[in-house]
Design brief:
DNA-binding, about 120 residues, single chain, two-stranded parallel ribbon
Length: about 120
DNA sequence: CCAATGACCGTAA
DNA sequence: GTTACGGCCATTG
């Protein structure tokens, strides 16, 4: 297949974030092999439609906070995370040291690469 | 092609 | 703790 589009890479990585864990936009960009493209990651997630299988709510900013301008979407994200056991304080902030899944995703990608990647 | 926009990030004060 | 700035770059007009 062709080189995955940036979007597809982003969605692929986000899909690897385990339930109950989170990852920063920058972290997703790094695991896509595109460090520094955090903004583009946000743009990609912004494009997702309702009902997508991509767990977009597990992506927050490096400050550990929900970073969605739209209040409704932000509330939905807070709800989703709480359901999964992610604790958020009154400022919608969470402890990244505790929930960051970047290393987990890194290991998954590393193993996948070792076993050889074939069509989804 | 150029300019503006944005669910970002790191650093500095 | 806060605000400000420069840098980042995919997408859109």
């Amino acid at each position: 297949m062709q080189i995955p589009s940036f979007y597809e890479q982003v969605y692929e990585v986000v899909r690897l974030i385990p339930k109950g864990r989170v990852m920063s936009y920058g972290g997703v960009a790094r695991q896509c092999g595109r460090p520094g493209r955090a903004r583009a990651v946000g743009y990609a997630l912004h494009m997702l439609q309702a009902g997508t299988r991509v767990p977009w709510w597990r992506v927050i900013n490096s400050y550990g906070r929900i970073s969605i301008p739209d209040p409704e979407a932000a509330e939905l994200q807070r709800q989703k995370l709480t359901e999964e056991g992610v604790v958020l304080d009154e400022h919608l902030r969470t402890d990244m040291r505790k929930y960051d899944a970047e290393m987990v995703v890194y290991e998954k990608l590393r193993r996948r690469r070792r076993e050889g990647v074939r069509g989804s």
